Predict the structure.
Amino acid sequence: MTVTGPRGEYAKTPARRHEILSAAVEVFSAAGYHKGSLRDVAERVGLSQAGVLHHFPSKHHLIEAVLAWRDDESRRRFRAGASGLATIRDLVDLVDYNQNTPQLIELYATLSAEATTPDHPLHDYFVKRYADVVAFVQNSLEHAAAVGDLRPDVDPAPAARCVLALMDGLQIQWLYDRDSVDMAAQVRHYVQSLLDVEL
Amino acid sequence: MTVTGPRGEYAKTPARRHEILSAAVEVFSAAGYHKGSLRDVAERVGLSQAGVLHHFPSKHHLIEAVLAWRDDESRRRFRAGASGLATIRDLVDLVDYNQNTPQLIELYATLSAEATTPDHPLHDYFVKRYADVVAFVQNSLEHAAAVGDLRPDVDPAPAARCVLALMDGLQIQWLYDRDSVDMAAQVRHYVQSLLDVEL
């Protein structure tokens, strides 16, 4: 006996989900959350809207899945069990890596700016996301400080916010002028200025 | 004989224009360019859409007027004829001042992120705006360098981009968590680190 699952546009294969997520990145990076539509996403992957809704029950679910996928991809760039300087190095390498994913950068920049309005459906996601990432970077800087890798005049809490602000701000400038902005070099240079050791 | 101009919603008074611009800031800071509508702006000021269109012939004209107004306001915070350190001080003071205009910050953050897409109606505005502002800050840093106010190891071109990135990135963090982010202190601290003199 052969057991077969659903076929065609209702097949819940990881490949089909991934195809929809990629299309969603294209649609929402250009249009933002409000303007982007499930219909546009469906068109790009040759599905009906019902076909997309079978995989993601609403636009909100779809965007959350895109962001969770992006967060997982970023998280995977950090060595497990590492801390302090090793994690800081991974963070700087992540900026290098991000330069290969301009549409994800555009998506993130657009959504994070749009969602600053408190009643935006993604507002709570970004409040939590920023708090988590600031705490993560601050923690790495504190670990670096504990073993003497941080310059003694650097305060980890504001420095963590600074590193992230620099990353976000350079992304915007880079999206407008990719030839003139070297995000990775700029972040590396700033982070190096916080350290008492070679990055 | 008394000569009177047009009355009511068609009166082209500066006050009425200003009222429409303020309403536009509210609408477009929350909704972005694509989603924001002239109808919402008109409703807020108690005009018909035709009434708004009498003052600004299209949504695009209205947004451009808002941005030009914001640019003028920012420009007025810089002392005429100043350069180098004096201009850098004005820039840092501007960050202080901006903390009193959260909706303008939100508008700017939302539009500048949304318009990174090349076919966005405001794309060219922001390309030019970033190029102009980077050149302006770079020029101030070069003037500071020429009189020995800049640390000798600071390269004005990337440092200018860094200052602006920091300002943009901190604005996003501040919009999410106003109690935890002191934009002015952070920018001041970073800019001070570039200088050989007291800010």
